[in-house]
Amino acid sequence: MRTLLLLSAALMLLTPEGGPAARADEPPAASVAFVSRDRVVRNALALMNAGQFQKAEALLEKADRPGDAATLRARTEAREILRRTRIEYSLDAPGLLAKVRRSVPDATAEEVERWARDSGARYRVIDGRKLYFRREPQNIFLFCAEARERRARAGRAPAEPQWKLTDHLQAIVAEAERTGQAEVHPVRHRITFTLTMQPNLPGVKTGSLVRVWLPYPQEYRQQREVRLIRATPEPRVIAPNAIDGKQVGGAPQRTIYMEQRVTDPGQPLKFEEVFAYTCYAYYPRLEAAKAQPLPADWGRAYLEERLPHIAFTPELRRQAAAIVRGETNPLTRALRIFRWVSTHIKWNAEDEYGTIPSFARKGFAAGRGDCGVQATVFVTLCRLAGIPARWQSGLEIKPTPTWGMHDWAEIYVAPWGWLPVDVSYGVQPSSDPRIADFYCGHQDSYRTIFNLDWGRELVPPKSSLRSEPADFQRGEIEVDGRNLYFDQWDYSIAVECDPGPSPR
């Protein structure tokens, strides 16, 4: 195996409003269509937002071929955004009713329509058809009490986990205070990650080159002893570990890269890795009285906009000012923002990130978002309040019935340095402030850290539009230079934890 150090390529992209170019060392983590100034692309996306998908597709199809590669790429990716959005919103009313009836067998069409309306269930009108978000009724059961009650009466409510998060947090706090250590309560993890390309895909033929990038853990502070146990096929490249600093270097999105030639297009093609690492809980002793101003030479690192996702809109500027209300202590400011986002930006099942023009704009306007959208609202408000903040992501693998992809944030507060903040977990139900505010500055023992940034170039570079332009937790596939989207492959993760039972 060999390692490769890759520097991000410069991306000089303009905002749709004609604002300043994005910094070369901070790629936008979004399709170039969302930051293109090409009139055809902007008009097509406007038509899409108005529900006129066929007109948008026709506009892109009939437009004269552009003379420059950047515009051609933006138009190509705009067509792909339309296609991906159709996948996200592909559930009609009868389909939604059928899915609700898996949990509430006697639900009527009228009840489901009311529950969808009362819960703010996500839908789009596409070319005259009302189509719901494909992951509904997940949000219906999150935000409609009547739907939850009917599900419970039907005996279909999810079982309460026997493993309690607050018990784990109490054990962390007790051990940290007893030992005086910040990194405590280690848990060893072993993860088997399998990605399977579906058979009989259009354009895939005997001899086609399949390129695959799988996520791989970082060695980062409380995450240690990372080792690859096995991988099939043999990896061509294991990306270097990220290098922390004013800007993250190395491979901020760490990967294992594999290649395979197709021998039979009618058979699935499997790629697998097994890795292990130890995750420590992180519990530094934080006291507002000990917080210090930023170092004099800090500059503007992690304090600026990063369009399109971290956007300093007038509304977000006003909200940041209202939250901190003249408070100057950076730790107290961060805690206020943490509590505000925890209260006001509720978790919901979210669209695929590649179809979202701006995480912060969407999450703030809707008052909802998944963990990555919530984290980006938090990061944006922190930067507006003068607190350096950035993205981190990977997996949450607590000993409960499920594991999941997960995103959170980090803030920089002297003298402690970078501190983890998870607004998705938010304020915990406890009268003990050490537990209630645990996730503002601390982290549990059940994480996998793949990414110290978003939207960074993979190792080696991927030429086509990523299925996930921002995050990297499921992997990416290219066949003969063409991206395969999430509907063309499957992935699975098996987790073993010691101590603690294995999630299923």
Description:
The chain has three domains: 32-89, no CATH class; 92-153, no CATH class; 172-504, C8orf32 fold, CATH 3.10.620. With 504 residues, the protein is α+β, with helices and mostly antiparallel strands. It has helices spanning 39-49, 53-62, 69-88, 93-100, 109-119, 138-143, 145-153, 165-179, 314-324, 330-344, 359-366, 371-384, 433-436; strands at residues 89-91, 123-126, 129-133, 183-197, 209-215, 223-232, 237-238, 255-261, 269-282, 346-347, 368-369, 389-396, 404-413, 417-421, 447-451, 476-479, 482-483, 489-498. Strands 7-8-5-16-17 form a five-stranded antiparallel beta sheet, with no helix packed on it. Strands 6-9-4-18 form a four-stranded antiparallel beta sheet. Helix content is 28%, strand content 23%. It is globular and about 65 Å long.
Alpha-carbon distance between the two ends: 32 Å
User: How confident is the prediction overall: mean pLDDT?
Assistant: 93
Q: Please tell me the CATH architecture of the largest domain by its name.
A: Roll
Q: What is the percent of helical residues? A: 25-40%
Biggest sheet architecture: 5 strands, antiparallel
> Uncertain runs with pLDDT below 50, 5 residues or more?
1-22, 500-504
Helix-and-strand structural type = alpha+beta
Strand order of the largest sheet: 7-8-5-16-17
